[in-house]
UniProtKB/TrEMBL annotation:
It comes from the Bacteria. The chain crosses the membrane at residues 6-33, 40-60, 80-99, 155-175, 182-202, 239-272, 284-304, 347-370, 379-397, 403-424. Keywords: Membrane, Transmembrane, Transmembrane helix. The keyword Transmembrane helix applies. This is Uncharacterized protein. It comes from Waltera acetigignens.
């Protein structure tokens, strides 16, 4: 899906470019200074690195545009096969890495067993009454699993692995529909290879909530896709998906405030490029319908909590606000956990992995300008920025700081930047199966066609055009333009009125009207 460029998207791009540049310079300094390098040399290396990244992005975009115009239609199935193999391979690698990580997990460690000890089945087991909805829901799920499988740490670790793999799958489908194939593969690769960078199998409520968040993202993306296809259709059907998305967002917002970030995806309908012209007021109504569904679902959850706990709604609402109320803003909260904590033993391999990640992140700062009118990065940048603000303001709990999701959103934004290198205008053209009339040029099927098109003057004068000599040096036909064929049927001739310019003979020999008797039965 494409979004129209505007002032807001340019501001978001500037923030993203500033972030990418800061990360690139910081990475260069971290890798260079321990080796005895100086700061000026590090800045020069970072500048050259950034300039080379931009040059490669623009040259690659130019090259892919030409190649796509030549054989983009015929290689569609090949790309799907390659994509499918890459996705299956990434999922297999992700499962393998997480199983290996779980086998190295210290089951006897007290730091990792706090959740297990709280819900393991005993005679006196009682689930703690936690105000944080996502944490309480995770405790209930983990307790139910231990009831069926027994007090085994392996069962809890397997649950974490399953939740993370399902999160990656839902992430792939959501990003693929909203941004594109390349962005989805890049995001899935980051998520599945997380155990290479940090310990991924850690007991806690975050994996379960991340899965629910990705499911909500898929619902919102499906509503956007329906609105893009038939947003101009009168009635509620084309915008009804936003109300359903609002219900899901309200439930997720009750569990954790990070769920309310999905409202940004719903509000992105204001800038979404649709197949038909959609009025601005209808876009506003779509976003308002999603907001209404969010409010309704949120207060319904508060009411159900009040009924189940026997407390008043005001007290539950105040308790929710006390957990997620903002505090003093601090940037340090974003760096409490390192973004890259590699378990790769080889130092050279670690440097290569970090360099590749930073380069991919920097691509989006340049690929944003590969096209003039639309882009696909702003929605992910807005989500990452909003989540960073929530974390910096202290609105996220200590049990779920949201850093894992924040890094994932940055990875998706980086993947969207890589996707922008591709000439996806042609994909949009083939999807719509038509362009505006003023942009269509009639092109013959063959480059060596020798007859010119008939005009209205030719029909009026009954003069057919003469054949022109074939020009074998014509430029190849561009595949992105609609190709029309000549009319193979004969054209109608002009009507010529006939006038009688001679006299009719008035003799009796031309009279064939014979009298017939009344009793004549015509049997002779």
């Amino acid at each position: 899906m494409n979004y129209k460029k505007g002032i807001l998207s340019v501001i978001l791009w500037f923030i993203y470019a500033l972030t990418a540049g800061t990360v690139l310079v910081g990475t260069t300094m971290v890798m260079l200074l321990p080796e005895g390098g100086s700061r000026p040399i590090g800045l020069v290396i970072a500048g050259v690195w950034l300039a080379m990244t931009g040059l490669v992005v623009f040259l690659l975009h130019r090259f892919l545009w030409v190649k796509w115009a030549q054989n983009g239609e015929g290689s569609g199935q090949v790309k799907l096969i390659i994509e499918g193999l890459a996705v299956v391979a990434l999922i297999a690698v992700g499962i393998t890495l997480r199983v290996r990580e779980s086998m190295q997990y210290d089951i006897s460690g007290a730091a990792g067993n706090i959740w297990f000890d709280a819900v393991k089945v005993t005679e006196t087991t009682r689930i703690p009454q936690v105000v944080h909805g996502a944490v309480y829901f995770y405790l209930q799920v983990l307790h139910g699993l231990l009831v069926f499988l027994g007090n085994k740490m392996t069962a809890a670790l397997v649950l974490q692995i399953v939740l993370q793999i399902l999160t990656g799958i839902f992430l792939y489908f959501a990003v693929r529909k909203l941004t594109g194939m390349v962005a989805a593969v890049v995001s899935l690769a980051y998520w599945m290879l997380c155990p290479v960078l940090s310990g991924a199998v850690i007991l806690g409520p975050e994996p379960l909530y991340q899965l629910l968040w990705m499911i909500g993202l898929c619902v919102c993306v499906e509503a956007l896709d329906s609105f893009r296809g038939r947003g101009d259709t009168p009635g509620i059907r084309s915008v009804g998906g936003f109300f359903l998305s609002g219900i899901v967002i309200g439930i997720l917002g009750y569990l954790d405030v990070a769920g309310l970030l999905l409202l940004l995806v719903v509000f992105s309908a204001l800038f979404l490029e649709t197949k038909q012209q959609v009025k601005w007021m209808r876009r506003i109504c779509a976003g308002a319908l999603g907001l209404f569904g969010t409010v309704v679902a949120f207060f319904v959850c508060i009411a159900l909590d009040a009924v189940g706990s026997g407390k008043q709604m005001e007290n539950i609402l105040l308790a929710w606000w006390k957990v997620f109320s903002p505090g003093r803003f601090t940037w340090i909260a974003l760096y409490e956990q390192p973004a890259v904590h590699t378990y790769v033993p080889d130092k050279v391999a670690t440097v290569i992995i970090v360099a590749v990640m930073v380069t991919i992140l920097a691509c989006g700062a340049f690929s944003y300008w590969c096209r003039k009118e639309h882009e696909r990065q702003s929605v992910w940048i807005a989500l990452a920025l909003a989540l960073g603000i929530l974390n910096g303001c202290g609105m996220l709990s200590e049990d779920m700081p949201g850093l894992t999701l924040w890094y994932l959103l940055l990875a998706v934004a980086a993947g969207a930047g890589v996707q922008a290198v591709l000439p996806y205008e042609m994909e949009l053209l083939r999807e719509v199966k038509g362009v505006l009339p003023e942009t269509v040029e009639a092109v013959p099927v063959g480059a060596a066609s020798t007859k010119r098109r008939l005009k209205v003057q030719d029909l009026e004068t009954e003069e057919f055009p003469e054949e022109e000599p074939a020009d074998f040096q014509e430029e190849p036909v561009e595949t992105e333009k609609i190709q029309l064929i000549e009319n193979p049927l004969p054209l109608p001739k002009k009507h010529v009125p006939k006038v009688l310019d001679y006299k009719l003979n008035g003799d009796d020999d031309s009279d064939f009207d014979y009298p017939v008797a009344d009793d004549d039965d015509f049997d002779h």
